[in-house]
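Side project, low priority. Logging it here so it doesn't get lost.
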Amino acid sequence: MRAPSANEIPSATSTRGLLPLTVTVLTGAMAALLDTTIVAVALDELARDLAAPVTTIQWVTTSYVLAMTAVIPLVGWSVGRFGARAVWLTALGLFLLGSILCGAAWSAGSLIAFRVLQGLGGGMILPVTQLVLARAAGPERLGRVMGKVGFVGQIAPISGPVLGGVLIDGWGWRWVFFVNVPLILVSLAMTWRWFPRDEERDQRHLDLVGLLLLPAGVVALLHALTGLETQAGIGAAALTAVAGAGLLTAFITRSLRRAEASLLDLRLFADRAFRSGTVMMFVLGVTSWGPMFLLPLYYQRLHNLSALDAGLALAPQTFGIAVASLLVGRYVDRLPPRPLALAGMAAATMGTLPFAFATPDTDTLLLSVALLLRGVGFGVAGLPVSVAVYRTLRPAAIPHATSASTTVQRIGAAAGTALMAVILQAGGFAPALTWMFILTASGLVMAASLPGHK
């Protein structure tokens, strides 16, 4: 039987055929998402083994997220030009190669370089996952399928520290990268059987100028942020920030003039549901990824926990997200996004409050309960936000919407990680934990902007 083309997927993919396709892409997505945070509990060991300061080693995380962000805008064009299957296979290949090289790294510099390669593959894996499943599910099954995507998207990065702790204490830091190899090989094998083949192609040209302007502007702004940690670096940081803002302004101005020919179709932001959902995805990126850099270090340094124990300390949040994502998936197609997102962010804010007053003597049981509530909150809020992005768009706009929204979310993730690192280095854990609460509370305010109707 002939596999459905990309344009046939929304109506042709049966429930029976949708399940193996979902498992295929989510297996690859799991590996890419794990690698966003699995390194967090390895930073101290990496610094010792590679003879590098923690301020250098933190780029192992930041470079990965930035590489993911830089490549995401390519996905919409690449899928249209070469087909989703070809892009998917390329992404898996890059990620596999990057993982093997990271595990074999001999210095901090080589590891950071290989993480960039790995991030380029991971950055393509995630939006292709969303794009393919959104097409395959169709509007009537979008909530249920995105519930599975949201489950993996939330639980994988938060499970990273737990798995990382097991691997580091058992086999060493290199295995936090080698663990990706079997996952990617399984996904490649399933791709051969279950991933649909594309027949039609979009011959749009790639916006090379936009591809240079957007990543350069984001990197400049993040570099300026990291320069604020010392008074001597404030002047250079200000100049870099001005340059970054200028590059982003040029990108936005040029993109609005070029419309669909631009790297990102910014006209999508005229749609209220897409605009509010994408802004909320940025906030979720900041408030979920930044603490995933901060919390393992908090448990290791202030509570003197091992890598494994620090990972286990974060397990309640993982459990809360898992349960909430599965339960909310049943109702998200029947309820408007706003009340679910408000309820979720309210719970996440309450779960973050104890950390704002935490000290080395704070009872870890209290913090575990708080993390459970925080996880439930993010699990409830994340799914309706993801669905809101696509709810009112025409099918042809889905690839462009995926590129734009995922790019914004990853920029939020990189900004959150960099911000937590700067605050931690400049002031220690107390102000960093306070800002973790403030940023989470801001998500509660932003959730009020989501549509209040289906």
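Brief comment: The mean pLDDT is 80.
Revisit when time allows.
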